[in-house]
Amino acid sequence: KxxxxxxxxxxxxxxxxxxxxxxxxxxxRYLHKLLTLLTPGERVLELGxxxxxxxxxxxxxxxxxxxxxxxxxxxxxxxxEHVPQATLVHADMMSLSFEPGTFDAIVAFYSFxxxxxxxxxxxxxxxxRWLKKGGRLLFNSITDEGDQILExxxxxxxxxSGLGVEGNINILKKNGLKVVEDEVAVDVVEQEEExxxxxxxxxxD
Length: 205
Fold this sequence. Notes:
Order of helices and strands: HHEHEHEEHEEEHEE
Number of helices: 6
Oligomer: single chain
Number of strands: 9
Largest sheet: 7 strands, mixed
Strand order of the largest sheet: 3-2-1-4-5-9-8
CATH superfamily: Vaccinia Virus protein VP39
Number of domains: 1
């Protein structure tokens, strides 16, 4: 996780310049779907808010009460410029503590898979406790199992880890989260294919 933190600190402006003009149509589709289920004023936690665009900004524009968290201080600094209305926290998501039933929704775009495998189920357990009954989790993860270290990802060394599609589903079910919708979707970014597992889940009794 130190590698992830230092990597995003090093490339934060370059990453912002790269991905904002190249939005994932799948992410925007799922975000829009979630927004139709949420009422202005409800509380949302975004794990891995990055620079705050486009997702944190869209949540704020919908009138939601947003708490954004990122492990990178450079990303949080950019988010403060883009979404000063949000409550922004520089932290490892695993270190967070909230009262049970605090949030109506929790989102994690391109962030969950930066946790080591052994922490991913622990994180889902925390998320389940933090969600209200009927609250929703929206996240994406990689489809492969195991750890990956990318030596040069936009100019920085980066770490990813995955449980696989079945593993993602299993940890949700074990923690009281019902899978409402999931798909393995491919986005084309600059003629390169990006494949992620997208999941929308519901907190049960």
